[in-house]
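User: Here's a structure from my thesis project, written as structure tokens. My advisor, Dr. K., wants to see whether a designed sequence matches the one we expressed. Can you design one independently, without my sequence as a hint?
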């Protein structure tokens, strides 16, 4: 057992005005299974990289732990190679037999190591990198969102591994993963940082009670401040009225007045003024108590959606569907039959590589193919799969709003994105603010956004585009847990027709009206 001590940590990115961390101090234990929780852009990945020695900073981080950071950075050169060729470059001292052992535990074929890395799916790439990470023995692991792109079986395998691991820091927005794997949480609140014993659910319940208490205390202080303000104003009026009577009087109307009463009136005025000042001081103390009460309050704004209503009941219909990509002999998807009705939220479920994203692309392709059988140049469906058997029917005139897994196409500013995609800029920015993206991000090139912020751009763009059908391909990768709950509330309230893929089991079970197994 050893400790990691963080003392007066201060870090700010070059060119940024607002520091990510400022004079932050806390202590962690290397035996803890620590879940790291916070909104996108709050500094979770930055802190892990600081521990791993990726950035220079002010303050001190001390401890004897040897850190290993996930995900590993794969260069363009390495991406063109087979994974077995650059294992040692990713993790010095990495042994191939250990990686093969971990791949087996992840239920992955060893053949993945002998295929060009760039030709693997996102999920397959993640599994290979996790096998490299888990092949170590004594490292203190800094694990940054390991379950993105992973299917449910692989997530369960990662859960089991982490349950048996001695100590690590896990950044994850998967509530089930956090509940299953961690015994402490490190939370980046809106204005503060806290370390707490327990998992996500216990922390969330504590936070819910603290937020409820803060709201009640705030209301009490507001009432007390209002009462003190009224009392101070009344005492001040009385004092001014009394002071005005000190000089000048009518002996006929006030026979008991004489010049000697001036000192009495003056003393009475002084007491009334002192009383008013006392009320003001009490008011200042109440304001001090109130200050900071709501600083960490999570009060997500309800998002809005404008789904279009389609005139037909059935939007999609597939029978004995078989899909494969050009140049490949093996079909990605075979023998699938299903339909999508208006108002349904259908989630596709299955292992990585079973054809979920392929099916979504095929639907896009079928919807956007013109009378000559062509897809518009530059459309996401242009590189889609080919139908080799069966049938896929998409209702004519269907307006589709699509979210891709890949954020790589996000280039330039948000204003330029709105021009390219013909989006209303004010609406997009309003949705991003509701998803807790800071205004300071709006003028930056999107290349500098965190992955979670990029995903929020795709989500906001989809919400800003009225549609009959929303096709979302793993929209929640990298998105913080608070925004996930916002989206749950949105979809349950507006009930859009949806065809989606996501591996967050809790989100899927809360939102889906039907699950199609592939």
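Assistant: Designed independently from the structure alone:
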């Amino acid at each position: 057992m050893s400790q990691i001590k963080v003392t007066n940590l201060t870090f700010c990115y070059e060119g940024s005005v607002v520091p990510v961390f400022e004079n932050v101090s806390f202590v962690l234990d290397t035996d803890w299974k620590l879940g790291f929780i916070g909104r996108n852009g709050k500094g979770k990945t930055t802190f892990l990289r600081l521990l791993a020695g990726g950035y220079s900073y002010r303050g001190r981080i001390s401890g004897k732990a040897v850190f290993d950071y996930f995900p590993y950075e794969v260069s363009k050169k390495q991406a063109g190679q087979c994974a077995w060729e650059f294992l040692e470059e990713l993790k010095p001292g990495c042994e191939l037999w250990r990686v093969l052992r971990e791949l087996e535990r992840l239920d992955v074929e060893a053949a993945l190591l002998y295929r060009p890395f760039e030709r693997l799916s996102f999920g397959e790439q993640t599994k290979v990198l996790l096998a490299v990470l888990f092949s170590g023995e004594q490292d203190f692991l800094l694990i940054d969102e390991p379950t993105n792109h992973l299917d449910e079986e692989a997530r369960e395998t990662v859960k089991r591994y982490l349950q048996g691991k001695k100590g690590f820091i896990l950044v994850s927005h998967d509530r089930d993963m956090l509940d299953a794997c961690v015994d402490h949480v490190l939370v980046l609140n809106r204005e503060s940082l806290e370390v707490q014993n327990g998992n996500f659910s216990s922390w969330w319940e504590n936070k819910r009670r603290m937020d409820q208490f803060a709201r009640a205390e705030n209301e009490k202080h507001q009432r007390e401040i209002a009462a003190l303000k009224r009392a101070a104003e009344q005492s001040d009026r009385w004092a001014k009225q009394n002071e005005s009577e000190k000089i000048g009087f009518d002996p006929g109307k006030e026979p008991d007045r004489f010049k000697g009463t001036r000192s009495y009136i003056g003393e009475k005025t002084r007491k009334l003024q002192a009383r008013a000042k006392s009320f003001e001081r009490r008011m200042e103390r109440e304001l001090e108590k109130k200050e900071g009460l709501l600083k960490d309050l999570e009060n997500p704004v309800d998002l809005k959606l404008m789904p279009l209503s389609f005139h037909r009941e059935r939007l999609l219909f597939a029978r004995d569907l078989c899909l494969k990509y050009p140049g490949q002999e093996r079909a990605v998807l075979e023998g699938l039959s299903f339909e999508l009705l208006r108002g349904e939220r259908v989630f596709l479920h299955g292992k990585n590589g079973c054809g979920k994203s392929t099916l979504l692309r095929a639907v896009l392709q079928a919807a956007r193919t013109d009378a000559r059988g062509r897809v518009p140049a530059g459309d996401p469906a242009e590189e889609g799969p080919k139908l080799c058997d069966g049938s896929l029917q998409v209702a004519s005139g269907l307006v589709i709003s699509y979210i891709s897994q890949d954020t790589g196409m996000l280039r330039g500013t948000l204003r330029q994105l709105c021009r390219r995609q013909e989006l209303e800029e004010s609406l997009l920015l309003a949705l991003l603010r509701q998803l807790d993206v800071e205004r300071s991000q709006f003028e930056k090139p999107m290349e500098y956004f965190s992955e979670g912020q990029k995903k929020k751009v795709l989500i906001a763009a989809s919400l800003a585009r009225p549609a009959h059908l929303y096709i979302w391909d793993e929209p929640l990768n990298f998105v913080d847990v608070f925004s996930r709950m916002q989206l749950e509330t949105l979809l349950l309230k507006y009930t859009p027709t949806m065809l989606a893929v996501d591996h967050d089991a809790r989100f899927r079970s809360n939102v889906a009206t039907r699950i199609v197994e592939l």
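When you compare it with your expressed construct, this may help: The two ends are 45 Å apart (CA to CA).
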